[in-house]
């Protein structure tokens, strides 16, 4: 008998149970305000190392993610008042400056196709696209919804927003955009001791990730949250050990490795294109761009050039290493540096909760570029 057939016959079959409702930790991901402690943790995570994320392939010999921001009067793709899918925390209502909307990303070695929502719907007619992750996944999901809607504003839609699973279907085309909220990707389970972040399991809800045509995964920000209310768990299960806490980068590495194993064992690559949404930066610490007393508040233009003064992020090398170890081809949307340059693109004080949000991004805005790069990767 062929050795490959023998090997495949010995692989265990993993059975997963679909979650019907979110656990407490997932519902807490809807809290937009980031505590001072967690802002400091997110900001302090910057500037470590110079390792750049590299996609598993380049698109037509072009590095889409090396380039610069250029003024472009043809942007944005849509008006927030005309898109019914944007959360109030992201529409930046009342922000007086609009120039931050008038930039496009220009790769150094090529041009990228302008997003065409109707062409996207026609190409992916009858298909399912799912974003899996935290509120940065929501940022990208709502952006793509608005970009498509602006191309076919009269198209009938079905919009269902729930936790953990939301969906938007463009009925005429049979295209559905899903959002599955799970900030750590790995499980948080309720045990006798309380809520446990299990670095070694993905069981709760993962069945709904299967059989999608496009999967876009994301996780990072929540790994730096501190405090049982903000982080959404009480203990960490690391192998056989149940512990109060551990080095968060080590935890992220272990959790992401578990995710990679799940993808390798469960995703049918003949049907599904898999992407990882690269690490999205924050702008709470102005010293990263040589304005030590500043945050994103009041910033009205991007940084010039193609490099970020504060350097890379520590999670960058972890993502690169985990993706390179996988047998499944995962395309990395390497958005980190191009997003670091956009200190001007956050909701800041226009997020509606009374705080300063330098973690998420205005819509329209930067996530539209993430989706244009996704569109390029799918099209070129």
UniProtKB/TrEMBL annotation:
It holds the Pfam family PC-Esterase. It is found in: Membrane. GO terms for cellular component: Golgi apparatus; membrane. Residues 112-376 form the Trichome birefringence-like C-terminal domain. Residues 1-22 form the signal peptide. Residues 61-111 form the Trichome birefringence-like N-terminal domain. InterPro entries: TBL (IPR029962), TBL_C (IPR026057), TBL_N (IPR025846). It comes from the Eukaryota. Its main location: membrane. It is a single-pass membrane protein. Keywords: Membrane, Signal, Signal-anchor, Transmembrane, Transmembrane helix. One of its GO terms (molecular function) is O-acetyltransferase activity. The keyword Phosphoprotein does not apply. Belongs to the PC-esterase family. TBL subfamily. This is Protein trichome birefringence-like 37 isoform X1. It comes from Raphanus sativus.
